[in-house]
Amino acid sequence: MSSFRIAVLPGDGIGPEVVAAGLQVLRAAGERFALRFDLAEYSVGAAAVARHGDPFPAETREGVSRADAVLLGAVGDPSLDGAPRHLKPETGLLALRAALGAYANLRPVAVHPALAACSPLRPERLRDTDLLIVRELTGGLYYGEPRSNDGTSAVNTLRYTRPEVERIARLAFEAARGRQRRLLSVDKANVLETSQLWRQVVTELAQSYPDVTLEHIYVDYAAMRLVSDPASIDVLLTENMFGDILSDEAAVLTGSLGLLPSASLGAGPGLFEPIHGSAPPLAGQDVANPIGTIASVAMLLRYGLRQVPAAAAIESAIGRSLAEGARTRDIARGEERVLGTRAMAERIAELVRAGS
Predict the structure, then answer these.
(1) Helix (H) or strand (E) run with residue 193 in it
(2) What's the longest Cα–Cα distance across the chain?
(3) pLDDT bracket for residue 353 (50, 70, 90)
(4) Is the alpha carbon torsion for 190, 171, 65, 108 positive or negative?
(5) In the beta sheet, which residues pair with residue 39?
(6) DSSP 3-state assignment of 132?
(7) Cβ contact 341:287 at 8 Å
(8) I want to staple 42 with a disulfide (CB 3.0 to 4.6 A). Which of 55, 60, 251, 314 is the partner?
(9) Which domains are present in the chain?
(10) Average pLDDT over every residue of 304-324
(11) Nearest-angstrom CA–CA distance, 20 and 157
(12) What is residue 183's three-state secondary structure?
């Protein structure tokens, strides 16, 4: 039996509920595929501020460094909106990503046929939508120095280096090779020097991938194309802030933020989390959609632990549960069977155990 160490960071709001759901399905996959998981729980975000006075305390830093993979719920609490920057939950998330060396964020966006009516776009526009966003995660405006705000003026620094662009672009080219071999690189090279460097480096690297078709696109047109012709996109490569915005826009294609997973990869253990926020008003009500977290567990198995059959079993079970009409409140449209967080996880876990 293979054994793996998983650092579990439930986070804030609905985070603990969806993480519990994800772990239930992870255990089901472990039973079916003879995998053993050593789970260790740590706090991050607002929960860590309440417990340790630090959104990314030392014990969490040490714990994730020893893990084979990290599963995160969500961070955020409106009670800390006015807190100093070093106490904000989001500061803990940025520090977590930096500690793991997680420079690449992968967000797959595919529209399940049974959920086409959930999207604000017409079903015919969504047909064949299956894209992957590759976002650079540790550079750009969010990390650049100097930064300041003296109440009169504020400064943020947008900086990228050639090695930073090369490593994320190479990962995107490799991902495209495993898909439809089309790469769409996003920038704002008409006005930003950082984007000019980005475009130059990506173009040079493309010579090593003659089998992948490269297209450059400005970020404003990328935003429009995501909703006007999403099926034309295979792999979308973007810097940090552009990716933050575009990936949330892409989530609308599926009809609910609760459906989508993500993986953050780099030098250390991978970080796997749903793309939604902590949604404090929904906490404790058993209504949060756990599918994004469960799909993140599948990505954890696929990219973090290299357990592809177990990952595929979870992905298949998610699809089968939706095909049979199981829905959480956010994606219910009519006569479908509406399940709570726990019941949806139980159904998917049952399908994982049962197999195809």
Answers:
(1) helix 193-205
(2) 62
(3) very high
(4) positive
(5) 6
(6) strand
(7) yes
(8) 60
(9) 1-105+255-356 (3.40.718.10), 120-254 (3.40.718.10)
(10) 95
(11) 38
(12) strand
Q: How many residues does the chain have?
A: 356
Distance, CA of 137 to CA of 39 (rounded, Å): 26
How far CA 133 is from CA of 24, 63, 107, 175, in Å, comes to: 27, 29, 5, 10
Helices (H) and strands (E) counted in the chain, each on its own, are 12, 14
Name beta bridge partners: 41: 8
In terms of Cβ atoms closer than 10 Å to its own Cβ (0-12, 13-18, 19+), residue 150 is: exposed
C-alpha distances in Å from residue 210, one per residue of 164, 165, 195, 222, 354 = 22, 19, 22, 23, 43
- What percent of the chain has a predicted confidence (pLDDT) above 70? 99
Q: Helix 89-100 to helix 58-66 angle, to the nearest 10 degrees?
A: 30
| Mean of all residue pLDDT scores within the chain | 95
Active site residues: 142, 188, 220, 244, 248
Give the pLDDT band of residue 199 (cuts 50, 70, 90). very high
Q: What is the pLDDT of residues 25-83, one digit of tens each?
A: 999 999 999 999 999 999 999 999 999 999 999 999 999 999 999 999 999 999 999 99
What is the average per-residue pLDDT within 214-234?
A: 96
Element (H, E) at 181: none
What Å distances lie between residue 213 and 105, 204, 267, CA to CA? 21, 13, 28
Nearest CA to 167 out of 305, 269, 267, 242 is that of 267
Long-range CB pairs of 249-253, under 8 A, 24+ apart, other chains included: 249/223, 250/107, 250/109, 250/131, 250/133, 250/226, 251/109, 251/275, 252/119, 252/120, 252/121, 252/227, 253/109, 253/111, 253/119, 253/121, 253/126, 253/129, 253/226, 253/227
In whole angstroms, give the CA distance from residue 29 to residue 38: 14
